[in-house]
Specification:
alpha/beta; glycerate kinase, domain 1; Rossmann fold; 484 residues; six-stranded mixed sheet; globular
């Protein structure tokens, strides 16, 4: 086989990167607002009504409007809402994101919460929000703008004796446990004063509209930022089972362990007996987000604080994947989307996707396998510089070494522009990655075991760097083959 040229592989790297960045750019929050809701005078119109809640909301029925924006997309979501509402008088609110915006509205308090671990502003934002929600009455409408990352950057323990340092240790332990996000967030919901529906309970009389940009599986939307406005159907028994399953209790800080071992551990708000799927699986039609479930259906068995709640999905990982599919098809690739390894261990996901990829390219030499979602990494030591995307790509690189001379590449990157504890969104690999890494003094198996992928990919020039994107629509993986 004729060795593939460096220029050919560089071109394939560029193709994969352009599909990723193009798919991300197409996920525009401003456009997503306009596809889902519209403001005309004092009326809010839901553009895709499905019978599960009011098609219109009369804003003039409310004397006060509060806005709580939290997560990595908090700032662009807030700016868009204010623009569409013409910066209505009397609005007040909180904005908590991982980066302070350059331009701020004087009616809002802004906080720079920590991610992937909470910080002082995470606590301060939660306290300020609870204080504001206490002022809500029947004449109050609250917009909750919720995006991914809020679980860390917006938090406050139910037990006031638990310190920030112990909260950070708790979050760090969960992130490295290898548990899928819905199980991690079950524990967070029962730990926190602002998760698992407790923001809704904090303003029981107010009408609530939650606008969502999820970074969680669509079957588990109540896990988004640990479900601050959603009823929680997990229970204290579930919490205790998870602590045992992952052997977490002995590793917890003493104050957190004492809290979870309380016989009177508080239940989160939500019906623990009647457990419908909060957002049921719906058939897809194009790149439109799934139908919502609101007060008319799933809330009928819930606390009254949830019954005037409306939920709208503005953007999701489905949109990210469909945008990538469209771009890859326009580039002439045979495209297959396979999201079945969502929440798998990174090594298992790498093996599965590579096997599927090789099967596909046997019949379609110019193909693109797309996978959206997240993989998990179980940390058994203090990690180096890396994240789940770079860990996945490094595992793929070891397998691709067995395909010398072939035009193959793998990209995995986070839509938020941040992978783990690095400034990279992810990385790209090809059949030459291992050899090139050795030339720079890196040994992939050692780097893999140390969870230290970033230095190697940076040295090779194979990091995917976007900077913070203002999104968090989960991760995008691309496996691409080309022919001469």
């Amino acid at each position: 086989m004729t060795p593939v040229s460096d220029a050919a592989l560089e071109s394939l790297h560029a193709t994969a990167t352009s599909i990723f960045t193009g798919a991300l750019e197409a996920c525009n929050i401003s456009s997503a607002f306009d596809r889902r809701i519209r403001f005309e005078g004092n009326t809010l119109h839901r553009l895709l009504p499905d019978g599960s809640g009011p098609a219109t909301i009369n804003l003039s029925s409310y004397k006060r409007i509060f806005v709580i924006a939290l997560g990595k997309a908090a700032s662009p979501m807030l700016d868009t809402l204010l623009d569409r509402m013409k910066r209505r008088k009397g609005m007040r609110g909180i904005c908590c994101s991982n980066q302070l915006p350059k331009h701020r509205n004087w009616r809002f308090r802004y906080f720079e919460g920590g991610h992937p671990l909470p910080n002082e502003d995470s606590f301060a934002a939660a306290r300020a929000t609870l204080a504001l929600l206490k002022k809500a009455r029947k004449d109050t409408l609250i917009f909750f703008l919720i995006s991914g990352g809020g679980s860390a950057m917006f938090d406050l323990p139910l037990d006031p004796q638990i310190t920030l340092d112990d909260t950070i240790s708790f979050h760090q332990l969960l992130v490295g446990s290898g548990a899928p996000i819905n199980e991690i967030n079950t524990l967070r919901k029962h730990f926190s004063a602002v998760k698992g529906g407790r923001l809704a309970i904090a303003a029981p009389e107010a009408a609530k509209v939650s606008l969502l940009v999820p970074d969680v599986p669509l079957r588990s939307l109540d896990a988004l930022s640990s479900g601050p406005t959603s009823p929680d159907h997990s229970s204290v028994d579930d919490v205790r089972a998870l602590l045992a399953k992952y052997e977490l209790a002995p590793k917890l800080p003493s104050s957190v362990r004492a809290f979870f071992e309380r016989e009177d551990l508080p239940e989160s708000p939500g019906n623990k007996v009647w457990r419908p799927p909060f957002f049921p699986k719906m058939p897809w039609t194009g790149a439109v987000a799934p139908r919502r479930v609101t007060s008319a259906t799933s809330m009928s068995g819930e606390d009254e604080a949830f019954r005037d709640s409306v939920f709208e999905i503005l953007l999701s990982s489905h949109d990210l994947g469909e945008n990538a599919r469209s771009l890859a098809e326009k580039a002439g690739f045979h495209v297959v989307v396979d999201n079945s390894c969502d929440d798998w261990d990174y090594a298992d996901a790498a093996r599965y996707l590579l096997e599927r990829f090789h099967d596909l390219r046997a019949n379609h030499p110019r193909c693109c396998l797309i996978s959206v979602g997240e993989v998990t990494v179980t940390l058994n030591r203090t990690p180096g510089a890396g994240g789940r995307n770079q860990q996945f790509v490094m595992a793929c690189a070891l397998e691709l070494e067995g395909h010398p001379g072939e035009r193959l590449t793998v990209l995995s990157a986070g839509s938020d522009g941040i992978d783990g504890n690095t400034q990279s969104a992810g990385a790209v690999a090809d059949p030459t990655t291992v050899t090139r890494a050795h030339a720079f003094g890196f040994h992939l198996k050692s780097s893999l075991a140390a969870f230290d992928a970033c230095p190697m990919f940076t040295a090779l020039g194979d990091s995917v760097v976007t900077g913070p994107t203002g999104h968090n629509l989960r991760d995008l993986r691309l496996l691409i083959s080309e022919v001469d």
